[in-house]
Amino acid sequence: MKSGEKDRLAVLRLVSAAVKQKEVDERIELDDSAMLVILDKMAKQRRESIGLFEKGGRDDLAVIEQKELEIIQTYLPQALSEDEVQALIDDAVTQTGASEIRDMGKVMGMLKPRLQGRADMSAVSALIKAKLGA
User: Which residues contact 77 (CB under 8 A, 6 or more apart)?
Assistant: First the structure.
C-alpha cells in the first residue's frame, strides 16, 4: 500500500478474498498446497478472460487481465519447461503402467500434486492423451 502499487494491491485483495471465502466455506485453514490451487485457478481464469477479451476486440480489458495475471504468477512457483513436463509424464506413465486412454485418471492423479501451479493442467492433459494414443 505504501509503495503506491495500486494494481498489485487490487490483485492481492482479490487473492485474499478468495482465500477467506474458501476458508469460510470449508471451515478449514489453508496450507501451501491449497494456496497454490487457488492461485493456479485465478491464473487460469485470467488466461481464459484474456483470450475471450481479445476475441471480442476488447484489448483494453485484455491488458488489465494480463497485468493481473503477471502479478498472480509472481506468487506461483517457477513454471516447468515442456521437456520437464514431458519427462514427468513419461515417469508417471511408467510408474502407473498406463497403456490406454482409460488409464489417464491414474496418470493425472499422480501428476497433479507435482505439477499444480507449475504447469497448465489442460496442456498436461493433452500431452497425456497424445502419449496414451487418444
Answer: 36, 117, 118
**pTM of this structure:** 0.75
Alpha carbon distance 100, 107 (integer Å): 11
Alpha helices by DSSP H, listed for 27-120, are 32-55, 59-73, 82-96, 104-115
End-to-end Cα distance, the chain: 50
**Planar angle of CA 49, 53, 55, nearest 5 degrees:** 120
In order of start, what are the domains of the chain with their CATH numbers?
Answer: 6-73 (1.10.1510.10), 82-132 (1.10.10.410)
Reference 113, options 88, 86, 83; nearest CA is: 88
pLDDT tens string 13-23 = 999 999 999 99
Sign of the alpha-carbon torsion through 85, 90, 92, 98: positive
Q: What angle do helix axes 104-115 and 121-132 make, rounded to 10 degrees?
A: 150
